[in-house]
Amino acid sequence: xxxxxxxxxxxxxxxxxxxxxxxxxxxxxxxxxxxxxxxxxxxxxxxxxxxxxxxxxxxxxxxxxxxxxxxxxxxxxxxxxxxxxxxxxxxxxxxxxxxxxxxxxxxxxxxxxxxxxxxxxxxxxxxxxxxxxxxxxxxxxxxxxxxxxxxxxxxxxxxxxxxxxxxxxxxxxxxxxxxxxxxxxxxxxxxxxxxxxxxxxxxxxxxxxxxxxxxxxxxxxxxxxxxxxxxxxxxxxxxxxxxxxxxxxxxxxxxxxxxxxxxxxxxxxxxxxxxxxxxxxxxxxxxxxxxxxxxxxxxxxxxxxxxxxxxxxxxxxxxxxxxxxxxxxxxxxxxxxxxxxxxxxxxxxxxxxxxxxxxxxxxxxxxxxxxxxxxxxxxxxxxxxxxxxxxxxxxxxxxxxxxxxxxxxxxxxxxxxxxxxxxxxxxxxxxxxxxxxxxxxxxxxxxxxxxxxxxxxxxxxxxxxxxxxxxxxxxxxxxxxxxxxxxxxxxxxxxxxxxxxxxxxxxxxxxxxxxxxxxxxxxxxxxxxx
Amino acid sequence: xxxxxxxxxxxxxxxxxxxxxxxxxxxxxxxxxxxxxxxxxxxxxxxxxxxxxxxxxxxxxxxxxxxxxxxxxxxxxxxxxxxxxxxxxxxxxxxxxxxxxxxxxxxxxxxxxxxxxxxxxxxxxxxxxxxxxxxxxxxxxxxxxxxxxxxxxxxxxxxxxxxxxxxxxxxxxxxxxxxxxxxxxxxxxxxxxxxxxxxxxxxxxxxxxxxxxxxxxxxxxxxxxxxxxxxxxxxxxxxxxxxx
Lengths: 530, 244
Ligand SMILES: Cc1cc2nc3c(=O)[nH]c(=O)nc-3n(C[C@H](O)[C@H](O)[C@H](O)COP(=O)(O)OP(=O)(O)OC[C@H]3O[C@@H](n4cnc5c(N)ncnc54)[C@H](O)[C@@H]3O)c2cc1C
Ligand code: SF4
Ligand code: SF4
Ligand code: FES
Hints:
The complex is a heterodimer of chains A (530) and B (244).
Chain A: E1 4-7, H1 11-22, E2 27-30, E3 47-48, H2 60-70, H3 77-96, E4 103-104, E5 107-108, E6 110-111, E7 121-122, H4 128-145, E8 149-152, E9 155-162, E10 168-175, E11 181-185, E12 187-190, H5 212-219, E13 224-225, E14 230-239, E15 242-245, H6 249-252, E16 256-261, E17 264-266, H7 268-272, H8 282-294, E18 298-305, H9 311-316, H10 319-329, E19 338-347, E20 350-352, E21 364-366, E22 371-372, H11 383-402, H12 424-437, H13 444-459, H14 465-483, E23 505-512, E24 515-522
Parallel strand pairs in A: 1-2, 1-12, 2-8, 12-21, 20-22
Antiparallel strand pairs in A: 3-7, 4-5, 6-7, 9-10, 10-11, 13-20, 13-23, 14-15, 14-19, 16-17, 16-18, 18-19, 23-24
Helix pairs in contact in A: 1-4, 1-11, 2-3, 3-11, 5-14, 12-13, 12-14, 13-14
Chain B: E1 2-9, E2 18-25, H1 33-41, E3 72-75, E4 78-81, E5 94-98, E6 105-107, E7 110-111, H2 114-122, H3 138-145, H4 152-156, H5 168-179, H6 184-199, H7 207-211, H8 218-229
Parallel strand pairs in B: 1-5
Antiparallel strand pairs in B: 1-2, 3-4, 3-5, 6-7
The complex binds flavin-adenine dinucleotide (FAD), iron/sulfur cluster (2 copies) and FE2/S2 (inorganic) cluster.
Residues 7-13, 30-33, 38-40, 42-47, 128-129, 156-157, 191-193, 204-205, 208-209, 212-213, 245, 346, 368-370, 381-385, 388 of chain A line the site of flavin-adenine dinucleotide.
């Protein structure tokens, strides 16, 4: 019998599970916690599709062009073509599942989002992700009742089961409640989210995405793409234990960034970019914030001034944000400027996949934020939920077409070295080294320094298996950033500030015998994959 | 400030529970109980007031911004989200953490809330056909969809128990979502299930209302769902706040 094992029950995992179930194919859906707790519920702003309900002559072709441009030449054109062409159908499907997108007089309303020329982002107040998740959890429940989706909540993925020829035979998981470890055989779809856990307290995401799953499969030889591409969101605030997103909508409604310069407020974005001002793309704003903080006469803190917004805007559009800032920072943004800083928000890089979502090993697929697909060097807001949904669906379709009958034909290994968690102090040390190298502005010296510190850290201790995997993945990220000697999208090198056509390639990192190698691979042509 | 933190601990369902008290030093009064637990677990040298080593405290968290419901527990006797409880609230610096009581304990502060999902399964909470949404009540669909399935409401509900046939507010809200857009073919079955598992057991005391950490207007949803499922009236149209 064909069997399918999905790791992760956020948007991409649910989409994959539902796609298989619709074809009558049963799957097992593993996740550390139930879907209600996945990072996908945090998504606020919206999801993109060229539905053209605002009559701006929008089309999938324009959505394609914006996405490819946003990705600065590193997005796989064939994959993006599929994504943008299927987007309207995906949105309509979500409507049929009862997602309460914002409507006016029978029209589904779309809003502007950074980097896109047309209104293309569907939304449900400031909880778009939660609304979609609730609807898809119900949809999945229908198939659970029919015996097609078998949920394994509170299960941790430990590692892949590999055959001698390095193809993937299944997964080993641990029940976090009982401690029981079991092997499951079948085609594997990794939908395990971004690598937030490499940067504890420094991302806008969840603690559940610990990065352990990514590190484990990297150690097992699964190639990763563009791991140096981290999206920093310019406006985040530090709340207890994490960075909390201050949505782009706050600037859209008139929020202004400033820094104290020689005792006066300097609205630097407005001065430097008179046309778009505070609404420049995320990477540009983040970089300028970084720069002004170091410039002479400037204080070390950038503020977002929202005091000029009307009472109506606060009441109707940003009430959640205000409530959040009052609750966590005892700061009322209506009266006082908000201290903001860039925070890690999205991982464009991850498990390398082709347009059909096949990962580097036979029998292995990946989708959602854990995979490197659609966004190239920079993700557009609203494209990641879409990418997770379409990616999960595509991965499931490919797996369904290719899957073999699952046999436990892989040697069973009794011991399980991955059981011991990584030392939390080491996790923080690795984080600090990564941050020193993979900041908003990078250069050869700091990256070399970071690699050096990582090597010293690694040499100075006897690491367990999880720690080794984490060190190896961290090293690969730094190495990739070092070897991409150009600036492109989220990757900005002070020593190579221009883009170089020679690097219009995917960075592919691979782990062999505990050491990472980096190569640059040309992008596939449209129509290349079968 | 020194926080005197007492945690009701239990190594496994088969072990006896015991209290462990830790003195936690911090100057950061904006820290949440969730972050305090993370810090304690990240410190291998942490000891309790009797000098015993503190093994990692088992609890669940995910979003750390009260949007996922993972970290629900009893804090000084009140069911709440640990990421929604700032240390500055506890003037006397005494905090008691206990697991939710209506669910079986897995270990320490982690409880098994899978009964919530089983109840929704029994109620057949899904659209068997395409949803038939009514634009006039989108606000209700939205609010009902916000439920975190955290279980705080069940903890204070006088009528909910884990093996009972009454499913409480955590069961009612998902049903209320469906009722705003239910296709004709599902109406009868849903109305029956609603009566049996929600309407008949609910005393309408609204103890759940003040406790809901998501601030969901459960009273409004209760009235509307009752109207749709029991009195077979359309949900009440209200002037909606403009969406954004
Ligand atoms: C604050 C915030 C706002 C956002 N806003 C938007 C927006 O407006 N529009 C947009 O398009 N995108 C937005 N995003 C991004 C988007 O939400 C995510 O990229 C997307 O939801 C990721 O979905 P996913 O399925 O890949 O992963 P997730 O939803 O992160 O799910 C990961 C799953 O993997 C499981 N898992 C992880 N590790 C393991 C393991 N070892 N074993 C077992 N299971 C494991 C988890 O339990 C979880 O179920 C936002 C993100 C954040 C943080
Ligand atoms: S109104 Fe009372 S009985 Fe009904 S769900 Fe709420 S607390 Fe329980
Ligand atoms: S109604 Fe409120 S308290 Fe109850 S489960 Fe939902 S979010 Fe939690
Ligand atoms: S961790 Fe998500 S609600 Fe507390």
